[in-house]
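Cross-check.
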Amino acid sequence: MGISRKDYETALAPLSLALVSMARWVKASGARVVVLFEGRDTAGKGGAIAAVREKLNPRQCRTVALSKPTETEAGQWYFQRYVAHLPTRGEIVLFDRSWYNRAGVERVMGYATPQEVEAFLAAVPVFEKLLVDDGILLCKYWLATDQAEQEERLRERLEDPLKRWKLSPIDLAARERYDAYTAAREAMLAATHTPHAPWTIVDFNDQRRGRLTLINDLLARIPDTHEEPEPIAFPPLGRAPVKESYGVLRPIPDYPIG
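Predicted model, tokenized:
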């Protein structure tokens, strides 16, 4: 049985406060944080990212969700377009899929050759060691979902006009390759689960519980998640508040309810 919305929101509130405090520490210390969100289609990556960044300053915490490479990018060093989005001091970057596309969709759908995939899996530990050695705090999450749950979510996207945009031909093609994705994931984990950049697998069959689990783990991986806010003086206004004035313009009528 899944966690209720009420219980989820109750449990999320203190975690959100802790995330805000963590973000203050990141800014004050000049830390650089990179979080990778990987998983099958419909795993819940977007919702998990939204839960992490909802209360954070969008100027400090940003999401990177790259589309397929351009012709120019396809001719570059594979990691090059991802490097351009790494954080500067005081920033948090959340990757909605990442360089691991090569080990997943590109491998399974034939967009990369076996030689390219093999070279990628050999290079990733070296690449990530460079990031970590330079001081980047790197957290890698795999959001795990069963095939029955994936099927239900794909059907929901098909039937819900507000979610239809999430459904692509690649998503539908991936349905037929569930086992191939499993094999690709296992090869990826075996090659890239390292002491300096380990993977963390989170059960996302219940997306709300999965978000809570992921956020709690993320907070535990940051060296110091507590930073008191700077005191801000807020003296009395000293006069009666002024009602907003629009000059010759007038606001549109309120949206009717009921």
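The mean pLDDT is 93. Residues 5-29 form the longest helix (25 residues). Passed to J.P. for a second look.
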